[in-house]
Amino acid sequence: RVDNLIRNPEFSQVLTNYEFDTPFHIDSPMKEDTRLELRMMLYGADQYLMIARDVSKLNRLETMRRDFVANVSHELKTPLTVMRGYVEMIQQTGDDFDEHWMNVFGTIEGQVTRMDRLVEQLLILSKVENNSTYDDTHLVNLSELVEGLIKDSHWLNQEKGHTITSEIAPNIFIFGLDTELKSACSNLISNAIAYTPDSGNIGVSLQFVKQSNGVGVKFSVKDDGTGIKPEHINRITERFYRIDKSRSRNTGGSGLGLAIVKHVLQHHNAELVINSQWGQGSEFSIVFASSSVEQVNQ
Predict the structure, then answer these.
(1) pLDDT digits over 184-224, tens only?
(2) Alpha helix (H) residue ranges in the chain
């Protein structure tokens, strides 16, 4: 019996419930500092094949990458703040410089702002990736959180002039962290505003949905923009992946927003669903499993 060889309560639970959709990771019982990945797959009509591989090196590399990103982001924050301060001070004394130099300083200020936004996104991503303990999870009023984000979106939307409509069901509560949920939902809304042509239409909804094992929740942001080509959909949650580099540069996009969303959803028993047709707009949805949802009647 496999569970006699691998004495791990969580692994025994996986075997009992046939939860073989994702790999299972355990520490090696034979070697210290060794991490194993176990995969189960159908092998014939009524048998399963288990494949084990050593992923210790991959884990160490991933840890080094996360630490590097976190440390560099923190180190960049201070010099960027100093640069911004000096540029703003120079711009306030604009009478001492001719128009050419004021344009130069304006360009510097714009690039510092863009770099500062990128560093901020890196810090958020690093925090989400490294946050492995969730002892402070609590019931989050997702309805109120989304309503607040929609109000904030009207400030972001002043230049674009989109028509933003909403359909928010009341009293939807999710077990999780409000900071991470806010980051995920706001990223989808801000992306729709940034990448939908001027005077477009954006719809935001939050509703209960029926699932096979109960009632879940679906948060969605739908736009009538240019849409996404099929070859890009599977890659847009990768860090720094951009569909159109020139367009992302013009909108100030960092290529990290959907990567942050993906990691947040992994922590909240949810998945990102993308429906898009080229030339007909896109719909980005966050679907929460029923185990994370609670409805409170008020």
Answers:
(1) 999 999 889 888 888 899 999 999 988 877 888 999 999 98
(2) 2-5, 9-17, 56-92, 99-130, 142-156, 178-195, 230-233, 245-251, 257-267
What's the CA gap between 39 and 128, in Å, rounded?
Answer: 26
Asked if 137 and 77 touch (Cβ cutoff 8 Å), the reply is no
Query: With contact defined as beta carbons under 8 Å apart, do 219 and 184 qualify?
Result: no
| Nearest residue to 20 (alpha-carbon basis) of 43, 108, 1 | 43
- CA angle 177/152/198 to nearest 5° reads 125
Cβ atoms 143, 168 nearer than 8 A: yes
3-state secondary structure (DSSP) of residue 35 = strand
Secondary structure letter of residue 197 according to DSSP: P
Distance from C-alpha of 205 to C-alpha of 280, rounded to nearest angstrom? 19
Q: What is the rounded CA–CA span in Å between residue 160 and residue 195?
A: 10
Beta bridge mates, 293: 174
CA atoms within 13 A on the CB side of 279: 0
- Tally of CB atoms within 10 A around 46: 6
